[in-house]
Specification:
Layout (H helix, E strand, L loop, with lengths): L4 H25 L24 E5 L23 H11 L3 E5 L9 H9 L4 E5 L7 H9 L2 E8 L10 H10 L5 E6 L4 H10 L4 E3 L1 H4 L9 H12 L3 E5 L2 H4 L10 H10 L4 E3 L14 H6 L1 H4 L3 H16 L4
Parallel strand pairs: 1-2, 2-3, 3-4, 4-5, 5-6, 6-7, 7-8
Length: 320
Amino acid sequence: MGINRRECLTTMLGALSFARLGTEAQAQEKEPPVIAGPDPDTRTPVYKPPKGAIDCHTHIFGPPDRYPYSPRRPYTPPPAPLAMFQALHAKLGIDRAVIVNATVHGTDNKVVTDAIAESGGRYLGVANIDETISDKQLEDLAAAGMRGCRLAFLSRLGGTPDIGRIERFAERIAHVGWHIDLYFEAIKIDAFLPTLKRLKIPYVIDHMGAWNAQDGIDHPAFKALVGLLHDDERCWMKITGPERMSVTGAPFHDAVPFAQKLIEAAPDRVIWGTDWPHPNVKTMPNDGDLVDLIPLYAPDEAMQRKLLIDNPTRLFGFKG
């Protein structure tokens, strides 16, 4: 009995569709990429931070058996637990910190709130939340030492960013006195400016606007970033991430002029941090190098104190 050509073609197409679905399912089940951990040989910096200095942008990862990673995480880091974090700061001469909960832990902020609870007032945090959070949950996080929430709008995350989320989140968190922490590429600042200028709460821009030093200090987008910081008293800037913006590599001195320009624009609204353990960087920095950039960013001791103590104390509400 002969084979019907139409039936044969239908069978072949069905098999191909099934195979394609199987391939897509395998891709979805693929484990997120494993990234490098921090430099294990942190050197003692030459620069000695003043007593009470605050690292305003750092993370803790795991240990995963106690603080599981989110199944929807975009990457898998090696554990960087509280003990490692504390040892790093002891070597760097940093006394206090703001721990930013990263996407690795999803919207479970316990890794941060537990560290805050153990710190005796030396740590505060920035939460990772979504729009389903209740007012009571926000109030509980604020009581646990969280002082803001973070939103990321990076090209590498894919898709068109929903900039409207900024205003929606700002409205939700206003009643607990939080600020909103924003990670976006300043090369696209024009898309964000109308929304930022409408905000009624403070907002903090991460990593010097994720600027690329190769684009130069006179680029219109960088000038717009500097202008926003200068003109809008609700805008704060993190002088962080030189290893992310550098094109010359360690010790990242090509980042210094950009940091200086931002500090000059708003000396009372700039804060500093390490970004330890440096997830997803192209060049893993030694944190001793990052601390030794501080007197290059701000040669004046009074400005160093603003950057490391006075400004973050005012923004986050550290005591003492």
